[in-house]
Amino acid sequence: MTIEDMPIGTKIDIEVRFSGRNFTFNSEMVLLLDKNSILINPIVVNDKTLGFNDFITNLVAIVNNKAFLWENVKINLVRYEGAIYHKVTLEGEGKSYNRREAFRLYIGENMTIYYNTASGPTQISVLVKDISESGVGFITKEELDVNRMIRLKIKDQNVILDLTAVIIRKEHLPHLNSFLFGCKFNEKNNRLGKYIARRQVEILRSKLRTISSNSKK
């Protein structure tokens, strides 16, 4: 796959590798500038356009439901015909790339899930392992059934995200005397995508501040 084979509107994921963790931000291709560079819609979180100069970045293009990877690309903010874009400079051909359907953000926080039983509504505290735009994983000692519907409420600034999902996978964790459950959300929630992007930016900024602070000691 070459960038000349990518049609306008191609879904683009920018993968950031930093401090041992991976982060993903979504965009789409706007224009082919030349054989080594494209313009993509600017990646904006909380009304701020992101900069990528401090990070190792990869580009993943989704074409005909297949993913293609370019590693170590360069990303700069540019103005083109009066508008702001991210310009991505990449070399060579993209390699076929096998990855999970959606980026999963590590959470590692206790949250409450809600579900119905024969005796009425029930709520329990679980350890939310990770979350993506398509599903969530959590750990609990409670033995829940596959195909059970659950609700998860996440506070995003001043808004509560009310998410409904179905348990599709269950794994016993003997060392924790617990179960790991994988759930799939019933519908797409645009606000959830913004929440995941914002959490990624917060983590990146926190790690940058820690590195900057340590370098001054």
TrEMBL record:
GO molecular function: cyclic-di-GMP binding
Residues annotated as domain PilZ: 98-193
InterPro entries: PilZ_domain
Coiled-coil spans in chain: none
The protein's name: PilZ domain-containing protein
Organism: Herbinix luporum
